[in-house]
Amino acid sequence: MSHLATTEAPATPEPPAAPPRAASEAKPPKEEGRVFNVFSHGFLFLWGALVTIPLIWAVIQSFKTDTEIINDPLGLPEQWLWGAFGRAWTKGNIGEFFINTVVVLIGGVSLTMLLGSMAAYVLARYPFRGNRAVYWLFVAGLTMPIYLGILPLYLTVDKVAKGLGLTEVIGLSTHLGLILVYVAYSLPFTIFFLHAFFRTLPSSIAEAASVDGAGHVRLFFQVMMPMAKPGLIGIGIFNVIGQWNQFILPTVIMKDEDKRLLTQGLLELATNARYETDFARLFAGMTIAMLPILAVYLVFHRQVQAGLTGATLK
């Protein structure tokens, strides 16, 4: 009778013990995100305070007397006086400068948005020979410092107006001449922004409209422009802010004192404040100048955010 040898099954080796967690091990992703959010929100709060506090301080000074502004610049006024706004509007000619600025702004922004949207749409949706060259020519305008083009700009406006015999219409010290300069200044960024936005719009809707008999003009104004509304509002607000706050261009082009714009008027107020000792009028003029732009942004800030993020989300 054979003896059957019995063999024991080999024991399963135990897994090695996990090494102790290093003290310098990276934090969990959730904790890292929380730290980043605290840092980013803190930075944004600091940046907002640096921008907001000087604006509020300037507005408060417009309700003070000159004695309070000089002796207690950080305090609140003992009595809130509104007379400085009336003096700034009439005696400081802010009312006249304000109207001139609104006239130039309406013409400049309207013409910039019309020409910029049309050019951006064609460059984005219609391939043709030289398309990229024209696009990069406009983009190159973003790299040109405005200070380097002051003298050529002045000579161009003067000579073109004289050559066409339209010195009183589009020449120096004319609103229409300054409007055309604003349009040329604002077109590069407008086309650059809207070109990327038009490229994200779906082609199926445009093709369906073409099949239904829509021509190029009708397709652009009735189909594509409503679809690009967020982008148009966003770049429109940027153009409003940029042209409203422009100082170099009107200083070079607008020499007639009766046709000066708001930024030039504020410089005149600042100069006169040294001799007339009416600092409250200067701060009131600054308040009048910045309140319209602040109101526009507060009303349309959601549309601006939608315009900036619309192309990325699509």
Give an overview in words.
The chain has 314 residues and is mainly α. The chain contains 14 helices and no strands. Helix 5 (131-140) crosses helix 8 (175-199) and helix 13 (262-276) packs antiparallel against helix 14. The longest helix is centred in the last third of the chain and has 35 residues, at 279-313. The chain is globular.
Biggest beta sheet attributes: none
> What's the total count of β strands?
0
Quaternary assembly? single chain
Compute the average pLDDT. 84
Give the overall shape, derived from the CA principal axes: globular
Q: List unreliable stretches of 5+ residues.
A: 1-9
With helices defined by DSSP (H or I, 4 residues minimum), what is the helix count?
Answer: 14
What is the H/E order? Answer: HHHHHHHHHHHHHH
C-alpha end-to-end distance: 85 Å
| Percent of residues in β-strands | under 5%
**What is the C-alpha radius of gyration, as a whole number of Å?**
31 Å
Instruction: Summarize the amount of helix as a percent range.
Output: over 70%
Name the structural class.
mainly alpha
TL;DR?
The protein is an all-alpha fold and 314 residues long. The chain is built from 14 helices and no strands. The chain is 72% helix and 0% strand.
Key features of this structure:
mainly alpha, globular, 14 helices, 314 residues
List the helices and strands and how they pair.
Blueprint: H1 29-61, H2 66-71, H3 83-89, H4 94-125, H5 131-140, H6 150-164, H7 167-170, H8 175-199, H9 203-211, H10 216-227, H11 229-244, H12 248-253, H13 262-276, H14 279-313
Helix pairs in contact: 1-14, 3-14, 4-8, 4-11, 4-13, 5-8, 8-11, 9-10, 11-14, 13-14
